[in-house]
Design a protein that fits this description.
Among the domains are: 92 residues; 80 residues, no CATH class. It is of the alpha/beta class and 554 residues long. The strands form four sheets. Strands 1-14-13-12-15-10-11 form a seven-stranded mixed sheet. A six-stranded mixed sheet has the order 2-17-16-20-18-19, with no helix packed on it. Helices cover 31% and strands 16% of the residues. It is built from 15 helices and 20 strands. The protein starts with a helix and ends with a helix.
Amino acid sequence: MDFNIHIRMKNLHIKLSLLFISLLAADGLMAQSGGVMGGSQWLTIVLLGAAAFIAFFFIVQVADSFLAIEAKGNGIDTTKNNFSVFPRMNELFSPSLPGYTQGNEVKVLKEGHDILLAGKASGAVQTATVRTFAVQPKNFIGMSPIPKVLVEAGDKVKAGDVLFFDKKKERVKYVSPVSGVVKEVKRGAKRSIAEVIITADQDIEYKELQAFDWAAASRSDLVDYLLATGAWTMFRQRPYDVIADPETTPRDIFISTFDSAPLAPDSNIVVAGRGVAFQKGIDVLNKLTDGKVYLGLNGGAADAPSSIFTAASNAEKVYFKGKHPAGNVGVQIHHTAPLAASDVVWTLGVQEVLTLGAIFSEGRYNAERVVVVAGGEVKEPRYVRTYLGASMGELVNDNLTNDHVRLVSGDVLSGKQKDATSFLNFFDDQVTVLEEGDEYELFGWLLPLKARPSVSRTFPNFLMPDQEFEVSTNTHGEKRAFVMSSDYERVMPMDVHVQPLMKSILVNDFERMEGLGLYELSEEDVALCEFVCTSKMPLQKILRDGLDMMREQG
């Protein structure tokens, strides 16, 4: 007999038995009472009722135990399937889920906070007029400040030509995203290499890549090929969030297919029309790990994720429903397959997967990027098609409401401040433009007259959950004592105690840092905690200091 049918019959049998027992008990009591009951009879009824309840509870527990034993014997996960006579509490009070998640496991995250800002982009993707691009060594954590540069000003390069490599890891090549002429090898403090700037051709030429049968090749040969093509720089490794070590095989590989940060790009728009490259990238990633490739899907949006994501093969799909930071890959790792002390996993963004897949589906290093230009100070928030490392000034050219603004590469929580002469960071696909907050607000802490995004009930934001805010870069306060509060726990959907962890970093307590979950985190995972911090502590910087200390300790 089919096991599921067998289970249903057992449940029905138990329910009918319980109903029969209760009817017999009620009939017997009524017969004894003769229709008129005194105080002693009521006491007898109450005691018999309590005994019956205990008996029912015992029968249910025994039934559940037998069902669980038989289910496990048939290889069924009882944590995901309820065989109890009565529904579980989470089934009675679980939040409503979109219809497209039906039949899939959805991880519901209760903690978090969405910051709704004005200036969200929409509409079709436009082609940006950008001619200047740069690759910035400082975007890669742990790289030598003076890498070996193989080009100089005036050299002609193609997309995919090597620009420089790290002296510590000479096999990892950093290549040009476009074809054109090297404009400048710009140096920073102590003669470090800040940027390799390229003026792009009107029509991009690509370096011809050697044909490679990745499916038939060994993993070692595939790694060598990816190192040579420049695609290896797309892989980031946790712990530490650094470029992946070619000598290490990751336990698993994780890809978040949605970004929950403020004004972040919609990945459904980003991936449109590039399903072949995305699937090829997933296939290649499976060859690089002995574990699984996980896709984190958005289970809380009104619209279903792109079919390119939901129909992808060779990937384990997990839906997440919740407020920001539900889209962070670190949060998804924590709720899917958490990192143990000795584990190593790799992560990629959607656009990095597309570049990886294009190596094999198109035979070229295609660093094309769909970038969102958004924010309250943008005339026309929009999606634009350009290439990795595009000029910030050219991306926002003639599209600002005024000149008194701050440009951010990335989102407002974890992005980096830039100016018009700077370039989009290597892993960023978002330009956020905010009003420069350099005006003093008299008694702003006492008379909060201007609406602003906040988790505090001082502002009636909770009464207007869909309101979008015009914001500036004012911090509305100065650095204070690191006081204890519960603010972090309200927005942190990970089993990590942020404040004790930060304090252990500040005092260089390595054992506590490790025990409190340092290895699971990257800066973006604590960015929202920094936003709600009553002490105005630079949590992201503190975390990076701790990660760097642990990495240097080996």
